[in-house]
Amino acid sequence: MVAHKRLFASKEVKAFLGVLDEADQRFRPNYPVFELVKNRIEQEVLAQPDATAANIRNGLSPQQAVYSMIANISGDLAESGRFHIYRGVLNPLKGGEDLLRIFDAAVDEMLHIGAINEGFAAEQKLGLRENIKMGG
Questions:
Q1: Interval 61-82: pLDDT, tens
Q2: Taking a C-beta distance cutoff of 8 angstroms, is the pair 24, 67 a contact?
Q3: How far apart are CA 127 and CA 77, in angstroms?
């Protein structure tokens, strides 16, 4: 079903998915938990392709869209408690620490491409770490 939806997607969605595939090649060899992040992004985008296409037509680059979603989803998972070994500590065996690394790399990439500034990047990283301390 996903392959069928990919095949008939708009050019904007195909560009988005191309960047997502590049990110998958970047992250998954070192962080197998990235597969979970990628699958959630694909499901969300393919469920509402018109929203993704509209964002890109309105000036959001596919890179900005992809790395923003990677940061949001990896951050949400990291702070969810599902990947904690105990309260406030991510479980390295379940991919919790890797989710934090993926989040940091996605934020760094958004900073690198000029989508956000250093202050916002630092604020996001600090905020996630505070939320992780409260979870588990």
A1: 999 999 999 999 999 999 999 9
A2: no
A3: 14
